[in-house]
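We modelled the chain as a single entity of 257 amino acids. Its sequence is:
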Amino acid sequence: MAAGGHGRTGGGRARPRPARGAGRSGAQHAMAVNETVLAFVLGGTAPDAPCGVGAVTDWSTEVEFPLPGGKRKVRPDAVWRAAEIGVPVLMVEVDRSTMAIERVAAKFTAYRELLRVKVRDNDPALADEEPADRTVRWWRRTWPGQTRAGYPPVALVVTDAGPVAPANRQEAVAELSAEVWGGRWCTVHRDDDDGDGWRVYDDAVSIIATTPELLAEHGPLGRAGVVALRPRRTALPDRGAGQPGQPHRLRPAPEGP
């Protein structure tokens, strides 16, 4: 398989070249990003692990996205495009467990701020609409293909934390970032009760978490590859997959508005 080809072909594997800048100068963080990219492309090593997805050329590193005002930026460690499985874009944070938990959690607040940004929609079909109705989320215009409502997911890859600490670190980040992924509670009050309620996720960002070891063994599509990032004691919302701590698989999204 040539460099930059699909993750697996026939019965053998080839090691594709790293995404641009991923292994520069042998920096530990850059190498962790490199390992993450390779695990997505190559798939897992376990006997029943699914194949990898896409090619190294589907990834970008060292990308910056300015936030409104232009003074702050969001800098994902890697950005992945995999429209063939319903993921027009996945921004990836690689956490080497050296940064304070509060700073890691704050990154997801910035991601949601970024995903909220709207830009002018140049669709001719909207030419007669009011200016406020001729806008679109910038990421939908940049990476078309997401057919379901809601934001694209963000991934957290925790490394260098020992065999037990990654789960604890993911738990702590989940607690501190709950406002980002937890949705908002809506209530309808009636005369005969205190009000029925439901949770709405139209402004929530799905966060999925994993480790390089899980990715390398099970691949990004494996049942143990990635999990929904939510505190164990918190009920998993309707948009999630499985129960807290159970696998959240990347798979094609259903068609919808």
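As a brief sanity check on the tokenised model: The chain has a mean pLDDT of 74. The radius of gyration is 19 Å.
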